[in-house]
Amino acid sequence: MIAVRGNTFFLSTDNTSYIFGVTDEGLLEHYHYGKRVDVSDEAVTDSVRAMREKVSHGKGTTINYAKDSLTVTEDMLLEVSSVGKGDLREPFILVRYPDGSSTSDFIFKEAVVLDTPEMLKGMPSAISAGENVKQLKVVLTERVRPVTLVLYYTVFEKCNVITRRAVLVNSEKENIVIKRIMSAQLDIDEAGLKAITFGGNWGREMKRTDTIVENHTFVNATASGVSSNRSNPFVMLTKADATEEAGDCYGFNLIYSGNHYEAVDVSGFYKTRFITGINPQNFEWVLEPGEEFETPEAVMTYSAAGFRELSLNMQHFVKKHIVRGKYADKPRPILLNSWEAAYFNISESRILSLAKKAKEAGVELLVMDDGWFKGRNDDTTSLGDWTEDKKKLPGGIEGLARKVNDIGLDFGIWVEPEMISEKSDLYEVHPEYAMTVPGRDNSPGRNQMILDLTQPEVREYVKNSMRRVIGAKGVSYVKWDMNRMFSDVYSKALPPERQGECAHRYVLGLYEILKALTEEFPDVLFENCASGGNRFDLGMTAYMPQTWGSDDSDAYERTFIQTGYSYGYPMSTVTAHVSACPNHQTLRNTPLDTRFNVAAFGVLGYEINLGECNAEDFKAIKAQIETYKEWRDVFFGGDFYRVDDTQWMVVSPDRKRAVTMIWNGLCNPNEFYRKIKTVGLAEDKTYHVYNVKLRHNIKQFGSLVNQVAPVHVKQDSLMHNTIAKFVKMDGEVEDYTVSGELLNNVGIKLTQAFGGTGYNQETRLFQDFSSRMYFIESID
Ligand code: GLA
Question: Does residue 524 contact residue 537 with C-beta atoms inside 8 Å?
């Protein structure tokens, strides 16, 4: 809901309010973003007076806004800030005018509530075409220059989300230069908040870092050209003592896939400013007379009840307003990806034998990863040449797809369309397509260069080469990869004074391509990937409903990575695969059921040579897939909860079905006790809680087998292996019928864990990296 009372604007969602107004000078003063407060018509005048900043005298060494004004912009909560008028904090906007000056002063002109929202033109948005959602448009004009700044606030009531973006319009007779323009600013009248950010590197995305910001500026940003695994644009700002269940929390994200910048700036007056937008580093945009510049859309949410509610807001928002197309609400196919099974050794026969085993296991989609196109035998060649290698695929993509379809599986393919290898036909013909700085050696990343998507011809090339691949008969899934950071950022198509536009123009070029291709191929399921999660963001998610969360497929590592994503993204956007052990990234061994349990909480896939799995593992995988199919709608459509550091839970929207999982890092002897508590179950319902019965391989007990064997068994001997083949130890059974109230508030004490003092069927074998899944069904 949006209410305008005089010059005060009240934006409300189900649980939150965002309020701001206009000062006597025409500045936009921010009053409140937080818990919902409803102000009656009668109480407006006094409420506004109560919320306003009071000034009666100048303040120390601060600058007064104007001669006849005591307002100190440095000490005021503002909706937008600029430089040159006394506000010393991080600015929202910085423009260089034709006279060389950079002082800006944007003053309120008018505001209007739009029933039909105004849409972004060149970037994805939370608003889908034709969507009926309320939007407030606030127009500000520069006090002395003919330049207009338009602010858009869109309210998503049910998800408790408000989005913001800005448009700058140049009505000067000459060019102006935008040095910085943010998407959102939130000023809060306290300091010492905690910035919670998520970053890392390749293979270890989304590590949570907590930083208390008591003074100065804390920045979460990237200049890598992509939203990056170094610092994801999703950021939380919370009370220092906020927890999963309690405390004020703000969550922010940006619907953008390039260089982003989030700053938490604490002023000398103990107030905090948060801004998010395009990273101003190496950014400069020349705006010609009559032109406008639009920022990406920023997403904001607030929870008075800790991270859990904040994450639910974000999950619901992303599911409902970002993910779109045919697959938005459709549980995804279980796939087998060839990468860790075959790497570059692609051939028709290898893919078909993987497909046959995959079909037998219950998999639904076979994905041929890297290595299928002309001359691609390692990562040094061929990017840009999107024709099949006839030696590897004599029947081409379509021939192979048909055979895979005949086996009874859908067929998917890997591409990396934004790249060019120096050793490629494309580079021989069009070296100018590569992003390089003339006269300088290019710094390589994975032996490849980036295509300059700022050039229209390059965009056409990418679209056309992809139309051939994606449009090949039988292709129903595409993994769109992007495997390097930017270096040598430069476009040969832009004049020197516009080189600061290159990185942003690249992103706009990419969006143009993605929009065209996803619209042309609405039945194709697109998976986003950038060496795993190097471009996991809401911009990509608006085109591609799922993203490969990390190249690290180690189940234990994945518990951290997927937990990281869960703060800001629904698990239905994160793909996760069961892979071989020792794991290819860590060489760690984890139990097969843990690999499944962890992957099932994301969008499940397999990335393993099923043909080389032993019979026992293959049987187990078949059973996993059966279980997953029974519970897929819960994993996919349910609300995800972090119950504690080693327990996840997902609950169906109607709260009738749920799954929870616990896991272990390194186990300690003599630690027997474990309890599961639940979150999100209906307290007035009765639930049946049970686990899948495990059958343990006796080899897990090593030479302890001799404690029960009638004859001595030498470890790993033929006899040991033979016994292991035929004798299995039954695992513990957990089976309860109890109320949701008991589950949520008291919990279930699980059977005793193995601790070196004996084993029977009431013992939970819970060694290193073990896990258990418990299924919960309402019986009402
Ligand atoms: C990236 C992806 C992997 C795989 C390889 C292929 O690393 O993240 O999943 O597709 O490229 O080269």
Answer: no
